[in-house]
Every structure is written in structure tokens, then in C-alpha cells.
Amino acid sequence: MHDxxxxxxxxxxxxxxxxxxxxxxxxxxxxxxxxPARAGLGRPDAERPSAHPGPSPEPESGARAAGTLLLATxxxxxxxxxxxxxxxxxxxxxxxVRVGAAPWGAGVSPDGRTAYAATAEGLxxxxxxxxxxxxxxxxxxxxxAISSSEYRAxxxxxxVAPDGSRVYVAVTDGSLSPGSSFLxxxxxxxxxxxxxxxxxxxxxxxxxxxxxxxxxxxxxDGFSVTVVDARTLDAxxxxxxxFGRAGGLASWEKPHYGAVADDGAILxxxxxxxxxxxxxxxxxxxxxxSRADSHAHGTALAxxxxxxxxxxxxxNARSGPNLSILDxxxxxxxxxxxxxxxxxxxxxxxxxxxxxAAVAGGNTRDAxxxxxxxxxxxxxxxxxxxxxxxxxxxxxxxxxxxxxxxxVG
Length: 409
What we know:
Elements: E1 2-7, E2 17-18, E3 25-26, E4 46-47, E5 54-55, E6 68-74, E7 79-83, E8 93-98, E9 106-108, E10 114-118, E11 123-127, E12 132-137, E13 154-160, E14 166-172, E15 181-187, E16 192-198, E17 203-208, E18 214-219, E19 224-229, E20 235-241, E21 259-260, E22 266-270, E23 274-278, E24 285-289, E25 296-302, E26 305-310, E27 322-327, E28 333-337, E29 345-349, E30 355-360, E31 371-376, E32 386-391, E33 396-403
Parallel strand pairs: 1-20, 4-28, 5-32
Antiparallel strand pairs: 2-3, 6-7, 6-33, 7-8, 9-10, 10-11, 11-12, 13-14, 14-15, 15-16, 17-18, 18-19, 19-20, 21-22, 22-23, 23-24, 25-26, 26-27, 27-28, 29-30, 30-31, 31-32
């Protein structure tokens, strides 16, 4: 395994760099809360959040979102939920499927017909037309005991290859020691795990290249991203620690989840203070500032906008739970208050094409709620922020969006 390392002094950014395909020039600057922004750089202007978000209009009963659905893992049980946010209230949860204990990561095949869930027991395979589990495939490194909670053993992050031929699952034995975590490769044709690669400690998330050339784990307790070549399975670990590694396992300034830009760059939010842009091939890291100032968990891209869940004032983050909507082209950022803390986010589009953040309430510190919060991405500064809540029993932890091509509604 190859290793690269980049540490940046606490609350200080390194040197000037161009943010590649994102079109932003960056500069090193002190990240003090009241430091004045440099011309064209510094902290982007943020729209003032609404302190008292009101309810959004309820959609018409029976409305459909042009085949666009959500899939969420229900971490406190053994199911996934299929959700249609175009429907009202509890009716938005159109079905649940038993998959296995304490599901974490999830993904859907490119053809929209098969779902996968990383459970504590194994990889669940779900036929979305019949909405039944068709397989529960044991990991090559099975959990020594089956349990739930953030620190449980078993499958964590999951990603499906762009061509649908593989599913990559991050697996841990539940310990916090080197050698405790692996990226396992599931071959769809043979319906079996065919390989595994050692990665960093407790990989919350798995990402894949747009062209399928690599898969990567976001190694929460390793302060790292491990990039695995899809052809050779050679692994390279990139240390990404914008605020240093002081505190070790007790530190809050660690990566949780990531997103992949169209050019293949990996985007990693830290503490609502910076977004690290990692070139997975060269290991080069550049930084973009954020002013959400909230301990960052899940993140997703909606075109040029990076949408990130902030879970509150932990470590060097000092603001409450929120949602950051950061335009990577202009640097403009909108910050939406979001109590209680949530965990992950997916992008959902309604029948008109309007975009929303669907934010899963299953925060890993057990501080969240049993539901999905839907936030419009295109509200203007003059409009009050509007949230809609979808009750989803079972504590939805990871949510993904997909186009429903299963043939059922």
C-alpha cells in the first residue's frame, strides 16, 4: 500500500492553488471567525439563515415525482425504506424491505432494478420490482458479533460501480486498530465477494470514479482516503487532515463522507470550515473555505452545489446543526438551520425538475430523529427557508436517490 500525507496546521490553510475543474482560485488565510475576507477569496458570502423555518406547502395527495425515489437504511432495525417525497406524511414511505441487521451504506444499480445494503451480517441484494431480498452475501471478513450502533462490526460504506458490474463495500471488525477494515469487492455476475483490500480505520463511506477506474474509502479514524485501482486492486492511502491529527481517535476534525466531482476529484467537508479537494491520482489537495462552522457529516453534489450536513458544535466547529449549500463555481453559500442533527443527504428532484436536499435524520451519535427532512435548494434569499418532514420509523441513516425503473410505483 502506498501512502501520501498532507497535514495542514490547525485552523490555517496552505498556500495558493487553483481548484482545478471547480474554477475557484484559493489562497492560504487564517480561518479566524472574525478575520476579514480577502478580495475574491476568504469566506464566501452566506445568505442569512432563517431562525424559524416554516412548513412548506404539502404536495397534492397521490402526486408522483416522475419516477424519482429515495432509499434509506433503517439503522435501528433490519430494513431499508423506499420513499416517495412527492407523497404526503407517512404515506411517503411506500415500502420497506427486510435486509439484515443494522444496515448502513446503500446503493442502487444503474438500471434501477437492484438495491444493495451493507448490513452487519452481509451484503443484502434486493430486487426492486418485487421489493424482496434475494440474497444476503457473507463478507470475506465477517463481523465477530452482530450488533447495532456507530461502532458495530460489519458493512459500513457502499458504492456501486458505474457499469453495475461490482459493488464495493467497506467492512470493519468493530475495533479501532490498524488492519481492522477492508474494502471488499462483490462481483454481480457471480454473486460473490471476489477480493478484499486493507484500508484505513472505520471507513464511513465508499466512493467510485465516474469512469469506474478506482474506488475509494473515506477512513474516518485514519484521517485518510484510501484509493483502490479497480483493475489491479493496488491501494494508495492519502492522509487528509486539514486541522492536524492532534487528539488521535478522540479528535473531531476527521473525515466522514465525501462526494465525487465530474472531473473525478474527491470533495471532503471538514467541520463546516473547509472543503478539501483531493486528486485521487496525484494526491494533490487544495482547499475551499466554508462558513457553515458545524461538524460535517454527509455530503452530496447537485450540479455545481455541494450540499453538506452539519451536526453541531464539536471540536473547532462552533455553530449548531445546519445544512450548507455551497456553490463551487461562485463561492456563494446558503446555510439552513437544521435541528436536530442529521446524518447524510441525497438530492431529490420533483416532477417539475426542482431540486431538494433529502436529509436523513439517523445521526450516528443517536441525537437525530426518525425521519427525512426535505429542504428546497432553490429558495431565494428573500424567501423563508421551508422544510418538510417525512416520518420514517427505524432511524434512517444513509439515504440515496434513484430513478425508479423497477416497473412498480
